[in-house]
Amino acid sequence: MAPHGEALLHQLHDLSPVPVYIRAHFLLASGDGKPVLKFSSSNVYTEDAGGNPVYSWTILDKIFDTYAAAHVRPLVELGFMPEALSSHPEPYHIGWPLKPGETEGWSYPPKDYKKWEELTRQVAAHMVKRYGAETVSTWYWEIWNEPNGKYYWKGTEAEYNKLYDYAVAGVQAALPGAHVGGPATTGPGPEGNASEYLRSFLEHCAKDKSAATGGTIPLDFISFHIKGRPSVISNHVQMGLDREMMNAADGFAIVNSFPRLAKLPIILTEADPEGCAACSAKLYPPNNYRNGPLYPCYTAAAMKGLFELKDRYHVNLIGMLTWAFEFEDKPYFEGYRTLATNGVDKPVLNFFRMAGLMSGSRVEATSSGALPLDTILKSGVKQQPDIDTLATTDSSHAAVMLWNYQDEDIPAPGATVAVSIRGLPATAHRVLLQHYRIDNDHSNAYTVWKAMGSPQNPTDEQYAKLQAAGQLELLSSPQWITPDHGEIKLSVELPRQAVSLLRITWPDNHDTHHTESSAAE
């Protein structure tokens, strides 16, 4: 594991009170284990001269041992096809980006589905032996990635369904009750084939018999991806929150159309503002949004929208994964979709730190400056800003997240937000307010890096300043407040593309609480 990546795993564990799951591509691919853009490998499977399987756990163990040391959990993506098992092994790996017409052997179906089943059984059995059945039972096992897309799968849909059947049979042979699922398709919606692919896969699981066992097809969770679409309009970035929300709405509607499957857990195994983490801003200028406060502000608005869609469609959404980690030894702030750059945390990571400070139950939180969900679904956030809120509470604290989001990344006035937090317990004679902020000047190493002259070889002193600037920052000193009949009122100046978190703590009790906020420009 690369040193910055290992450190980031520990940070992700430390920012959340609940388990953090990590999903990685290319866990089963052939090679020397060195990562490059859109390719890596474990070399777990080869064959001898007689065509007999040979298993090597060295690289895979290093990966999963690193997860274990950081106390994060794998969401195991079973892919991609080992060279010796590929039905079209040559050329096995060419390099990103591919030229039109080029394909790589790791993206093809297996030449022998029984060997594929045995590979997945061996992987699961090895993990059980190494980490224990109780631990591995908390993992999720997802079969492949984006089989309906043009890059990751060169088989038919029928071949993917067969791949799925044999994979889940192998995993559950080693660990009965293992959580298996898929199909990890691209975003459902009117474009492409993702909606029909997802629907057909669910029909396969609901109605067909397993190609591997002849019995019922296991499906413990449903996964698909949702993506926005940034573009450059008049020399500035325009985000596409509407597209990501429409992907989710269409996917939830498809799941809802299967009564037997409608209550299964849904995991959005990629939920992001766009689709290519490995596409840098140098080549794709709209992707520069990833370096600054627009990315976390977009993510706040998207998270609220997903909760609203979950409630609307009555689906069992249990997780949303961002397809963003870090690329080792790339230029500083190159504009990849990452959480950190060369060990310097980017503003978006501070959004997840904020979210990790929200625990307990989600409670009612309303804003007069919020755009209705249907407006966002129809046209995004383009005519006026979305000034909205999300709140949680437990027995000893409340957390209120506020944001001032707009798809158009252009200078604009901020907003004065009047916040009312009501229902504080009678025993809370004094409450402690901590106000965290992400904006252009807070929790933002990118601004500091640019002010330094954008160094690609920062001095030790500069690097220390960048690392400090990458941490979640309080806007002001913590403040003790006396509630008035269980209510506190605050006035917050919220710049455009800024996110605030108001965290209020008091002596432990078990009353219920109600939180409201109102916003006006």
UniProtKB/TrEMBL annotation:
Name the source's superkingdom.
Answer: Bacteria
Q: Which InterPro entries does this chain map to? A: GH (IPR017853), GH39_cat (IPR049166), Glyco_hydro_39 (IPR000514), Glycosyl_Hydrolase_39 (IPR051923)
Xref: SUPFAM superfamilies: (Trans)glycosidases, Glycosyl hydrolase domain
Query: What residues sit in the active site?
Result: 146 (proton donor)
Question: Does Hydrolase show up as a keyword for this record?
Answer: yes
Q: Which PANTHER family match?
A: ALPHA-L-IDURONIDASE (PTHR12631)
Similarity field: Belongs to the glycosyl hydrolase 39 family.
Give the protein name, as stated in the record.
Beta-xylosidase
What is the protein's species of origin?
Answer: Paracidobacterium acidisoli
